[in-house]
């Protein structure tokens, strides 16, 4: 009962946090303004895929036709030319074109396409060149709690709560209760089906990381599919960080066989050994983590783009199919793609974890080549101990 | 098609065609993997789990390649 009431209060806290809106009274587009639907949809999808400095939930028009944005602001923390500054993103009033200038001490900041720029000393407004890049501003070092960072922290806290509870229940010799029953089979699955077969004997050391990365990616993928969710695993920086962690783990846990086979491959002519060493080095240090990060990023980005494009079909085909027809078509298509995305959310977490385990397994594998015995036909001979055991 | 449009699209052409070719290659590869896995499972249904795992890993590697080319190309 105690645990149940605790989890209820925690969930309430999360809900309160998620629903504490603040409204931005900024004059946006007026209702009835001519808009190019295609560009608007394109911009909306682009905006959704990007990280942002505030939580934008939805927009409404009031009686005067003025657009209001609903959501809540997030803290902005910057390390600019004049040191550290922190303020809430609501000071930008939901502006994304660099028109609102926020003055903090001696520095002036503008927000432009979800990025914050610091104006050069003495400038009061941002200027653009032909390609719409800011000319008189530089990017400060951005430490802000953006939407993605917020999502990572929230899911990190949730995972800490869930798994510490699960661990506590095992320590008290209990069978897991509540949500722990959902997590237990998944934990066992990752340990027995991913860590053990791919890594081998020393799997225990790496199971913690594999479990963390599996649940982190899976839960964030699912959160990305939720309404009002945040697209965290579709940020290339996040997937790159995960891939780099895997890289660091398998580089630093690699044994002498791993490095030996990589840099000075035995069993091939000496001429080719340095060449193969270079190829293997690039493959291990660059291509493996790159493929890890690109796969996750591209899958999630592609999935989100497809879902949103299919939803947009309902808007674009209104003229030819009538409102009802286009809604049915887009609902039908996006529903099934959404279901596939739920599968992809799990599959990508599984693949990232499996490949991480595989790479780690390659690095820590013992060298068995010298111990294997072969007969004259090249067939492997069973170990004498095994033969003796089977004989008696 | 107007000349301006052609001039705008033409420089992107090699990239787009290259990305398309990579996707065709990826499609062939995925088809072969899937087909071989199906055959393997049909021959030895008790090994289905192992075959599936291996299939997904190879498919993921291939997919990473195709996506990489798509992102670099398009």
UniProtKB/TrEMBL annotation, chain B:
V-ATPase proteolipid subunit C-like domain location: 19-72
Keyword Transport: yes
Transmembrane feature ranges: 12-30, 51-72
Subcellular compartments: Cell membrane; Membrane
Domain of life, per lineage: Bacteria
Keyword tags: ATP synthesis, Cell membrane, CF(0), Hydrogen ion transport, Ion transport, Lipid-binding, Membrane, Transmembrane, Transmembrane helix, Transport
Keyword Protein transport: no
Chain positions of site Reversibly protonated during proton transport: 63
Membrane association type: Multi-pass membrane protein
Cited function: Key component of the F(0) channel; it plays a direct role in translocation across the membrane. A homomeric c-ring of between 10-14 subunits forms the central stalk rotor element with the F(1) delta and epsilon subunits.
Protein family: Belongs to the ATPase C chain family.
Protein name: ATP synthase subunit c
Chain's gene name: atpE
């Amino acid at each position: 009962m105690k645990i149940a009431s605790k989890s209820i209060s925690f969930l309430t806290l999360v809900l309160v946090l998620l629903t504490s809106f603040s409204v931005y009274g900024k004059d946006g587009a007026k209702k009835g303004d001519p808009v190019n639907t295609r560009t608007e949809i394109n911009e909306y999808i682009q905006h959704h895929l990007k990280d942002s400095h505030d939580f934008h939930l939805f927009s409404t028009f009031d009686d005067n036709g003025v657009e209001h944005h609903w959501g809540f602001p997030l803290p902005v923390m910057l390390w600019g030319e004049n040191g550290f500054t922190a303020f809430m993103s609501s000071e930008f009033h939901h502006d994304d074109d660099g028109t609102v200038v926020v003055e903090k001490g001696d520095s002036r900041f503008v927000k432009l396409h979800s990025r914050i720029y610091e104006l050069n000393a003495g400038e009061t407004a941002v200027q653009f060149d032909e390609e719409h890049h800011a000319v008189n501003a530089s990017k400060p070092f951005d430490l802000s709690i953006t939407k993605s960072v917020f999502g990572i922290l929230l899911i990190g806290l949730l995972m800490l709560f869930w798994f510490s509870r699960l661990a506590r229940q095992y320590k008290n010799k209990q069978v897991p209760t509540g949500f722990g029953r959902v997590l237990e089979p998944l934990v066992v699955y990752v340990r027995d089906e991913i860590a053990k077969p791919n890594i081998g004997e020393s799997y225990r050391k790496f199971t913690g990381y594999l479990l963390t990365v599996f649940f982190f990616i899976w839960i964030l993928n699912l959160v990305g599919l939720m309404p009002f969710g945040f697209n965290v695993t579709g940020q290339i920086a996040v997937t790159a960080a995960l891939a780099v962690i895997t890289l660091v783990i398998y580089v630093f846990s690699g044994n002498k066989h791993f490095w030996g086979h990589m840099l000075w491959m035995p069993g091939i002519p000496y001429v080719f050994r340095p060449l193969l060493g270079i190829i293997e080095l690039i493959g291990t240090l660059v291509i493996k983590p790159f493929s890890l990060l690109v796969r996750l990023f591209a899958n999630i980005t592609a999935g989100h783009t497809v879902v949103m494009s299919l939803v947009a079909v309902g808007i674009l085909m209104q003229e030819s199919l009538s409102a009802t027809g286009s809604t049915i078509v887009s609902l039908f298509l996006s529903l099934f793609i959404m279901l596939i995305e739920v599968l992809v959310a799990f599959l990508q977490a599984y693949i990232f974890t499996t490949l991480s385990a595989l790479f780690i397994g390659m690095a820590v594998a013992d060298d068995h080549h010298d111990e294997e015995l072969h007969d004259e036909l090249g067939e492997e001979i069973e170990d004498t101990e095994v033969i003796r055991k089977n004989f008696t | 098609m107007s000349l301006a449009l052609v001039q705008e699209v033409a420089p992107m052409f090699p990239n787009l065609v290259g990305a398309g070719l990579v996707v065709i290659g990826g499609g062939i590869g995925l088809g072969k993997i899937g087909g071989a896995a199906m055959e393997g499972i049909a021959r030895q249904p008790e090994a289905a789990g192992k075959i599936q795992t291996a299939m997904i890993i190879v498919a993921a590697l291939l997919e990473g390649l195709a996506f990489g080319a798509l992102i670099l190309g398009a």
